[in-house]
Amino acid sequence: MTTLSETPIGRLRWAVADSRTLTVRALLHWARRPGDLAVGLLFPVMVVLMMGYVFGGQMDVPGGGGYRAFIVPGMFAMTMVFGVETTFAAIAADAARGVTDRFRAMPAASSAVIVGRGAADLLYSAASLAVMAGCGLLIGWRAHDGAARALAAFGLLLLLRFALVWVGVYLGLLAKGPESVTAVQILVWPIGFLSSALVAPDTMPGWLGAAAEWNPMSATVTACRDLFGAPVPDGGSWAAQHAALMAVAWPLLITAVFFPLAVRRYRALGR
């Protein structure tokens, strides 16, 4: 006789329940370490203030417009990309301490550990965006085209973060320990800076600007600037001219590649 847990619907319910439990576990860890949480949320605020006040008066935006309106969407996206390091460190630390092995020994859905981690990191990223948006409003940034378009922009930012969660999970499961985060930084920081987040790609050498325009982060930044009503430098590539489409397509492609890889890697641990 087939039990409910052996049916597709039963297995899905089981996976959702396990994922919810592990999401709550991660959130409780943050609640027990409010200092770490505060520092994590204040860092992007510091970056926004530094870029807005230290560099804001020295930078010209191609096509006109204020640099603060230009830079704030870029800093939103930078925070989403740098979140890969947070996911990586958490997954690698659990693996190094044997926590992941204990989870694997439990009768839990194999996807629940990484889905729970991903959901918690997405909630943390949403909180970071809220704090950064508040800081941006204080320094004069505004979403000029209405609440609906602003919410769409925040949705694109979280979609990018959602995709990069699985990159962080996969790399964390490959790593020997959280100290390997330096290798992730070597990967992530060029992606963050070789984009349209801080400067317009047409100010770069031709080949470098073309690479920046095809950067997944640039697609999200450009689409968000348009949705917020911020200055959007003209781009010559197909990717720059269809930024909204690419801001959806890139995260879906990254998720389609790295989520199965992360699940497969988790199942292969200890073999």
TrEMBL record:
Domain ABC transmembrane type-2: 35-269
Swiss-Prot/TrEMBL keywords: Antibiotic resistance, Cell membrane, Membrane, Transmembrane, Transmembrane helix, Transport
Primary localisation category: membrane
Topology versus the membrane: Multi-pass membrane protein
Transmembrane parts of this sequence: 37-55, 67-93, 114-139, 151-174, 181-200, 243-263
Compartment list: Cell membrane; Membrane
Classification via PANTHER family: NODULATION PROTEIN J (PTHR43229)
Entry similarity comment: Belongs to the ABC-2 integral membrane protein family.
Identification of the protein by name: Transport permease protein
Gene source species: Actinomadura fibrosa
Taxon lineage: Bacteria, Bacillati, Actinomycetota, Actinomycetes, Streptosporangiales
